[in-house]
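Reopening this one. Same input as before:
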Amino acid sequence: MYCVGVIFNPGAGRSSLFHVIGELLSQKLEAAGCRVITASGPFGAHYIPKATQVIPLSSADLPSAFRAIVTAFVDQGANIIAGVGGDGTLNLLATQLLHFQADVALMGIAGGTANVGPLIRFNIARLQEFDLRKLYTYNLSPLEIWLDKDHIGYAFVDVVIGDTFLGTFEGRLETFSASKFLKEGMKEPQLPSQHLGCFIVKKGKRRFEVKHIAQIVASPLYHVRFYSGKAITGALCWAPFLEAAGAVVWTTTPIIDPRISPSFYPEPVNLGMILLRPEDQVEISGTARSACIIVDGNPLDFLRDKTLTILVSKRKLQVVSPRPFEEDCYPLGL
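Same output, byte for byte:
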């Protein structure tokens, strides 16, 4: 019997949708004859009341709870883990699966703030057409992130060096102080800095001194053919010909900013960009005391006087989608 583990992030930005998602997912999995396991309380049982098995939790701390839940799902023989939340939620689940090197596919269901990453391939509309017999599975390699000699995470959407991160506050999109969150676990609204500091970016023998920077962003590239012939995208239009697997940009204007709207007219965006082949790595260091490392929307650490190393991981994660890979390049959120 096919086994599906289902987990919800109770702190996700669009938790108001969870009862609808839970009911719809339950109907589809029951019709497919699946064995369904979930976690207790707001991590699953509140929304999947007819689950075959419920995993009890001893901790409400999100990383600890996710670690325990994924461990239990893998031990119980789950074929798919369905995560309901945003890009940060799915990153936490993916990181655990990569750690275990488990032969389990991840099914991301949009329930968070942005939902723009490649792990989230389902929303309510796509769940309505869910058919277990017609699912596609493909492998994605994330960026691997090291701080000095410590491995601190994986990125499927982006790694941002900045002072704010995106979240939801009273139902609206906001940026919050990454420093405040790392120090006190609090979400304090704050606009991104226009002048974060000066940095050194190194790729192989090349060394770039970049000044008056607002944000540095690194992302894996999964659909490089999309940029072919589009000169307006800058160096990204070279990506298909260079077999690029990632890119790093530094910009004088914050790119990740919740104020973007039809009435918002920013200053001209000046940026530098380098591409990463699978064998490349980039090292970033700087003097900005407020610079934080945000991975797929999750603040992880301060940069301070350390060196951040970014490379294309050799590890691969199985992702479940209702569409084949080449037809599934657009984000579902925002």
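So the earlier flakiness isn't reproducible anymore. For the record, Residues 74 and 175 are 35 Å apart (CA to CA).
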